[in-house]
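Entry 14. Structure prediction run on the chain below.
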Amino acid sequence: MKVKAFKGNWVQIKKVVLSLSERAQNLPEDTKKVPLVMFVKGFLLNEEAEVGNEVEIETMIGRRIEGIMVAVRPDYNHTFGTPPEEMLIAGKEIRERMEGVY
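Output returned:
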């Protein structure tokens, strides 16, 4: 069963920004082998659509973009990655040194 979305639903699309032939030639070999793709979230403008359909969305700032719908009600799951051990230690040391200064 395909996942459906209806007009106004929060969805995510995928759009090819640069095809293989449009990519720079001085890229690393593994990068040259794939197109440059962007993922964008916004509100569905089509009356209804299924994942995999070409759709149009409106982003939070009002941009209209067309692409292939890849998710319905996507969440935000980005991080800043694992903190470097040195930064964790430095933060503790700075707090200890600052104790009583303010």
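The chain has one domain: 4-75.
Filed with the rest of this week's runs.
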